[in-house]
Hints:
By secondary structure, the protein is an alpha/beta fold. The chain is 51% helix and 11% strand. The chain has 2 domains: 12-180, 3-Layer(aba) Sandwich (Rossmann fold); 185-384, Dehydroquinate synthase-like - alpha domain (Dehydroquinate synthase-like, alpha domain), CATH 1.20.1090. The strands form 2 sheets. The chain has a 6-stranded parallel sheet, with helices on both faces. A two-stranded antiparallel sheet has the order 6-7. Helix 4 (74-87) packs across helix 5, helix 7 packs antiparallel against helix 8 (210-224) and helix 11 packs antiparallel against helix 12 (277-307). The model has no long low-confidence stretch (mean pLDDT 97).
Amino acid sequence: xxxxxxxxxxxxxxxxxxxxxxxxxxxxxxxxxxxxxxxxxxxxxxxxxxxxxxxxxxxxxxxxxxxxxxxxxxxxxxxxxxxxxxxxxxxxxxxxxxxxxxxxxxxxxxxxxxxxxxxxxxxxxxxxxxxxxxxxxxxxxxxxxxxxxxxxxxxxxxxxxxxxxxxxxxxxxxxxxxxxxxxxxxxxxxxxxxxxxxxxxxxxxxxxxxxxxxxxxxxxxxxxxxxxxxxxxxxxxxxxxxxxxxxxxxxxxxxxxxxxxxxxxxxxxxxxxxxxxxxxxxxxxxxxxxxxxxxxxxxxxxxxxxxxxxxxxxxxxxxxxxxxxxxxxxxxxxxxxxxxxxxxxxxxxxxxxxxxxxxxxxxxxxxxxxxxxxxxxxxxxxxxx
Length: 385
Ligand SMILES: NC(=O)c1ccc[n+]([C@@H]2O[C@H](COP(=O)([O-])OP(=O)(O)OC[C@H]3O[C@@H](n4cnc5c(N)ncnc54)[C@H](O)[C@@H]3O)[C@@H](O)[C@H]2O)c1
Ligand SMILES: [Zn+2]
């Protein structure tokens, strides 16, 4: 069946060894005031120094908003946006991981008092772009620099919810590997596996299409072949820049198709137990891939042929598919990311609540090629308890 598909992405993307210096080409006389969104950790590490220097050289007024907690809930995001509104800025720069970029993207469409983050949770498409934005990711990563999504915690529901509005897509993106060079290993590993999940989920999504496949497969190739080196060797700048590019491409793939049951079942783990997004995805990756295998064997075999450089093209579809799932599992283990919820003391009696909350993420569950029933979700959660 022929269906329609489309792609929206940031208009101006710059990558390379000195991408941040290219701010000079972007900052112009029409910009009167910039708000820089970042977090306290990144400020302390000096990762915002170079962008600030470039802004100063351009003679533009700026304010830094850095009071952003990791994985904010919608009240915390709204507090930042209220502070942003006071500044009356006409340009936004985000330097940070997904948490920072998501708040900055929400600010870009909530610069007046017309709507709140809560309004967008109820009706995401209400707001229009008001302030142009530039994203400089410091993790590789969420791909938030590419997507129309902003994810916020919703404490009343013990869930994280994705607000999706194409107006939030950033105008400019700078991909500079110096930003991720000294990422602590556990953060590099978890955020890297998040990008890996984006790539494999989008490639095997029911919404996959020729455009998303192009980005998802290239992302998978870049990430699977560089993640271990990038996460374990701080000098490996080439591997790190490939991870940054891979996570950006995986974000583009999310925009063009969508993630599946790994992300759907992961949201309650972030919402209720505040397990980092990349870690909860890593825990679910193997069980969900094994559950999906009967419906996606052919796709995993295609991915094998693309990704495994010394692979045996003569293997059967089933062998290639099994290899891929095993390799994904191995990556999570080699990077020493938790593989079960035991580390997080999740009690067995919480399982009903997890199943109920996970089944609410219909936005992503509909993308899963194999239907996930509440009994299936329960069986998957039981495997990781
Ligand atoms: N919008 C999207 O499309 C999208 C996609 C996936 C995930 N997300 C969301 O993004 C958030 C997670 O973002 P994240 O995984 O990038 O992590 P994060 O932004 O929450 O950052 C995690 C920690 O890493 C630190 N950190 C970030 N960069 C660093 C660096 N270069 N050096 C040292 N420390 C650094 C931060 O200060 C923070 O303490 C979650 O809320 C998740 O739901 C959004
Ligand atoms: Zn993700």
